[in-house]
Amino acid sequence: MNPFEKQLGTQLQLRKSDSQWRERLLLQSKQSAELVVDDTKLINFSSNDYLGLASNLSTIESVHQQLDSLGVGSGASHLVSGHHQIHQSLEKEVAKFLKRDSAVTFSTGYMANLGILQSLAKKGELIIADKLNHASLIDGAKLSNANSVRYQHCDMSALEKRLISEAPQKWVVTDGVFSMDGDLAPLDKIAGMCKKYQANLIVDDAHGVGVVGEQGQGCAEFFNLDQNQLPVLMGTFGKAIGGFGAFVTGSRQLTDYLVQFARPYIYTTAMPAILAAANLHNLRLIKNDTSLMQRLKQNITKFKLLAEQAGLNLLASDTAIQPIVVGDSDKLVELNRQLIKAGYLVGAIRPPTVPVKTDRLRITLSAQHTEKQIKGLIEQLNSSIND
Predict the structure, then answer these.
(1) How far apart are CA 283 and CA 277, in angstroms?
(2) Is residue 269 a contact partner of residue 75, using CB atoms and an 8 Å limit?
(3) pTM above 0.85?
(4) Which residues have a Cβ under 8 Å from the Cβ of 217 and sit 6 or more positions away?
(5) Cα end-to-end span (Å), the chain
(6) Cis link prior to 352 (omega < 30° from 0)?
(7) I need a labelling partner for 263 at 20 to 30 A (CA). Which of 166, 248, 271, 372 fits?
(8) Angle at 172 (CA atoms; ends 199, 202), nearest 5 degrees
(9) Are 112 and 135 in contact (CB under 8 A)?
(10) How distant is the alpha carbon of residue 320 from its chain centre?
């Protein structure tokens, strides 16, 4: 065996021995509250499709009607020949919905975060990041030429200590809703500190847009922050909006700057126009009807109440993300096996995605879930965890 293959084998064996081996599920159905996985029907409590729009019938019909005219591929980057008028309409609709001046679409949320930090944060400047930020924000900081430090999760005292810096430009970077804990960053307090210390706030609101706030406009709405207080706001189409891709919103100068300088935007093929059309359709559904969002909130309340009655130890979260920390990888894998056997698909999250000894079941709720499905999951969790 050559040294390269030997090195790969060693690393793979370590992953297995540490109980961190990952396997891909073979999905055989469309995304929904019920899935077929490896020929087995499972109730899906693992998806970020919070409003059930990934399989919305009116969206599917709309896509069918536009497929002949839009095709399936975009052919090139936005700056060559891939920027369709439907992208332009989508960007305008996003900006209007979120009460921002402008928006620019990216092919994925990961690429959007890489592009933001790679292009904005310069050598000698300082990125100050929450310790539990998404991996894309961590990698974006690495790609930039700026210095980077972290602060303890949502700890305002720790953040303030970092902000006392002589750096010519400071960037405070945080998730809006933290994807593995489900809690919200205290953005009102963070924005106040940014103003005090003349720093710029960047927020990844991938898990907030569409489901947080009275109108589903995300964490900026929830904390009543305008564009001056929160100048760089990223969100995705692939979660509550039920489509694919991402966007960055802010001033016209910001989006123009990203088009000119964000390498993950410039050097990749554009999101297919047919997907932009699906995103636009679903965004308008959310904008014009909050009933799905209200149904999701009812399901969150119902789940939390039943979990409390069952004595399940949830993390403090009022969002669709409801984690139960197990703390041991082997135990988590066994719990996950029992849940699948009982017909429930739940996210089993292990290090390095989460800190060591915080292995967890990541339960995600949807507007599609029925009361019977939620009660059934609670009963199975209670049985499996306390067995």
Answers:
(1) 10
(2) yes
(3) yes
(4) 97, 98, 99, 209
(5) 45
(6) yes
(7) 166
(8) 100
(9) no
(10) 12
How do the pLDDT tens digits run along the chain, 387 residues long? 799 999 999 999 998 888 888 889 999 999 999 999 989 999 999 999 999 999 999 999 999 999 999 999 999 999 999 999 999 999 999 999 999 999 999 999 999 999 999 999 999 999 999 999 999 999 999 999 999 999 999 999 999 999 999 899 999 999 999 999 999 999 999 999 999 999 999 999 999 999 999 999 999 999 999 999 999 999 999 999 999 999 999 999 999 999 999 999 999 999 999 999 999 999 999 999 999 999 999 999 999 999 999 999 999 999 999 999 998 888 999 999 999 999 999 999 999 899 999 999 999 999 999 999 999 999 999 998 876
Distance CA 367, CA 49 (A): 9
Active site (catalytic) residues = 179, 207, 239
Distance CA 128, CA 165 (A): 10
Determine how many CB atoms are found less than 10 A away from the CB of residue 301: 12
Show the 3-state SS of the chain.
CCHHHHHHHHHHHHHHHCCCCCCCCCECCCCCCEEEECCEEEEEECCCCCCCHHHCHHHHHHHHHHHHHHCCCCCCEHHHHHCCHHHHHHHHHHHHHCCCCEEEEECCHHHHHHHHHHHHCCCCCEEEEECCCCHHHHHHHHHCCCEEEEECCCCHHHHHHHHCCCCCCEEEEEECECCCCCCECCHHHHHHHHHHCCCEEEEECCCCCCCCCCCCCCHHHHCCCCCCCCCEEEEECCCCCCCCCEEEEECHHHHHHHHHHCHHHHCCECCCHHHHHHHHHHHHHHHHCCHHHHHHHHHHHHHHHHHHHHCCCECCCCCCEEEEECCCHHHHHHHHHHHHHCCEEEEEECCCCCCCCCCEEEEECCCCCCHHHHHHHHHHHHHHHCC
State the greatest distance between any 2 C-alpha atoms of the chain, in Å, as a whole number.
61
CA 102 from chain centre, in angstroms, equals 21
Angle (deg, nearest 10), helices 109-120 and 252-261? 90
Q: Which amino acid is at 61?
A: E
User: 257: which residues sit within 8 A by CB, 6+ positions away?
Assistant: 119, 120
**Cα 293 from Cα 45, distance rounded (Å):** 17
